[in-house]
Amino acid sequence: MIEVISSHRCIDCDICVEVCPTNVFDAVAGGHPVIARQADCQTCFLCEAHCPADALFVAPLSGAAPAGSPLTDEAVLERDERFGEYRRWLGWGHGRTPGAARDQNRVFTERLRSLHAPPGAGR
Amino acid sequence: MPRMRRSIAVPADVDVLVLGGGPAGTWAALAAAARGARVALADKGYCGTSGSAAAGGNNLWYLPPDPEVRDRAIATREAAAGGLTERRWMARILERTWDAVGELSAWGYPFPVTDSGEQYRGSLQGPEYLRLMRRQVKRAGVTILDQSPATELLTDPDGVVSGAAGIRRQQGGARWEIRAGAVVLATGGCAFLSGALGLNVNTGDGALMAAEAGAELSGMEFSCQYGIAPAFGAQTKGLMYQFATFTDADGGELPGSMPARSAVALQRAALRGPVYARLDQAGPEVRSAMRWSQPNFFLPLDKMGIDPFTERFEVRFVLEGTVRGTGGLRVTDDGCATTVPGLFVAGDAASREFVTGAVTGGGSHNGSWAISSGGWAGDAAARFAAARPPGRAPLAARGQAGLRPRGRAGVRHHEVVATVQEHVFPLDRNRFRSERGLRESLSVLDDLWRAAADELGPDGVRSRQAAAMVAHARWMYASALSRPESRGLQIRDDAPRTDPAHTHRIRSGGLDEVWTAPEEVGTP
Q1: Which residue, A4, A11, B350, B496, could crosslink A57 as a Cys pair with Cβ 3.0–4.6 Å?
Q2: Is B3 a domain residue?
Q3: Whole-number pLDDT of residue B298
Q4: Predicted confidence (pLDDT) at residue A110 exceeds the cutoff of 70
């Protein structure tokens, strides 16, 4: 679930409010958006992908992170370069190559198919 | 510097109203706009991130226009899908998918280029795909209403679907209402708020609305697809588990290492105790390609500090319901009409039995179905709307349970959801079924439906979602009872064989009274 909106990274663009498919955020006049309905977060990471300031961190847990977890600690997340991680893989942002151009799924679907082919099927 | 957030005005009437902004909805909107229709698209969340495709990756059922190659693929699918598919539909889907993917390339989707210099177009990455689809839909002049869940259909005095209404959840829950010459439902399947990757938007709202207007469903027994996910989360991405060794609590190796073939054995093992995976069959040479292909399979593990190639991690099975099952609203003709005039259906909201039969459509066929059915439904809806005189008749709002309770408010949406989940999540109830278990669940769910219809809400979209989930659970289990055999996704532990006498589809419908009836293969 979404755990952190970095106060020093956030530029108040409210894109996260707009794009969240489950309406987790609320815009705040003159301030950073807030995580208003964390329990509705479906951990899809798409707010991270769309955040132009790499200001969001979605923990991979399906429930809220326990108190004191490093997954809620902005300093630890900064140190470990966790902000903007999904966006880097997608290759979104100025000067990056889209990750989709490196998509090798065909190799893995073909491998899976060959694992499942009945003996003697020859493929 | 805060961006000016403009609120898009709701049009009073359009030719075609599309509900849902995933692949099926966006392809439908484009097809309707290409016919010159005035189109609006309303999404519960945001067109571009909503739904099962945006959050994941999408392999497609995508084959070149070579009759031999296609015939072989169709025959393979037919054999795997339990005899419930339709060859003619499979051929149409392959044809339409080929053309549509060509359009994606022309619009600039960054397909990977193979060593021979050709684009490889068989796989789409969700965030990139849906961002592009949104851009195209806007370019086509379609009005997009984000964060605007539809809650009910509107019908004219003849019962023809003539619009929909819903709420604008970022404008204080204000009601929206749009009159339309035709409506395309592309609201996705129902995954019961299981948390499966990207699926919490998919709560079956569309099928509930349609059933209130009298629509029928089909294939609802094939609704028990479970995805495999790390136990700490619910990121149901299965492809990379082909490299896994699975073990039990004591480290003993569990049979099979490929989920597609051994999923059932692993699910049985999960009833006995925890199951662990380690991707120890992936050599260092393929790991980078694995990461670039499925970044959001690895992202959660990276964030947890788990190296999946060397460390074992606990997994669990998360219900994906009808999203990666097969069942949905029954399609009655080549334009994806439902049994209700004016209402068309596309994507996972529709039954996908023509192409997926009794087995899961996840992992390629559903993706091609969404593209194809979206295009057909949008086109047919535009033609239907063009043939209708401008609507002036008063419209009836058809929403009932969770929206207009028959009695005093009582049961709450979270209580209803919790009870439904108790009956649809457990593997030993839904994955491994028996007549006794199904009857037991149905008796609870029938009572729950009465309570929901009488006392639930109105509580915005949440009470509607809860009502839709009860309705789905009942259609699922009533259909499962009507198929006293095991076939494809349906495993009946009390009837483990496939019975040739049941090589038919099962239609279903009804809300206060749920019914089922057989339908021969070969229609439509």
Answers
A1: A4
A2: no
A3: 97
A4: yes
Tell me the β-bridge partners of A4. A57
How many structural domains comprise chain B?
Answer: 3
For B413, the token pair is: 């949406």
Nearest to B239 among A12, A40, A108 (CB): A108
What pairs with residue B182 in β-bridges? Answer: B16
The pTM of the full predicted model, rounded to 2 decimals, is 0.96
Q: Would the CB atoms of A104 and B260 count as touching at under 8 Å?
A: no
- pLDDT for A1-35, tens place per residue? 999 999 999 999 999 999 999 999 999 999 999 99
Q: Do A116 and B49 touch (CB under 8 A)?
A: no
pLDDT of residue A123: 28
Same-domain pairing of B217 and B71: yes
Chain B: nearest CA to A100, how far in angstroms? 6
* Residue of B128, B304, B364 with shortest CB distance to A98: B128
Q: Is the pLDDT of residue A122 over 70?
A: no
Are B203 and B141 in a shared domain? yes
Q: What ranges in B306-359 are assigned the alpha helix state H? A: 353-356
Q: Which domain holds residue B160?
A: 13-223+322-397
ipTM of the predicted structure? 0.95
CA angle A82, A88, A93 (to 5 degrees): 120
Are residues B116 and B152 both part of a single domain? yes
Cβ atoms of B467 and B474 within 8 Å: the answer is: no
CB contact under 8 A, A85 and B299: yes
Q: Which of B350, B371, B397 is the last residue of a domain?
A: B397
SS3 at position B356:
helix
Q: Are residues B388 and B441 in the same domain?
A: no
* Subunit contact A11:B1, Cβ cutoff 8 A: yes
**Distance to chain A for B111, nearest Cα, Å:** 5
| CATH number, position B30 | 3.50.50.60
The answer as to whether B89 is a domain residue is yes
Residue type, B494: D
**Across the interface, which of A59, A103, A115 has its CB nearest the CB of B292?**
A103
Q: Is residue B364 part of a domain?
A: yes
Q: Residue B261 pLDDT more than 60?
A: no
Is A90's CB within 8 Å of B295's CB? yes
**Phi, psi for B176 (deg, rounded to 5):** -115, 150
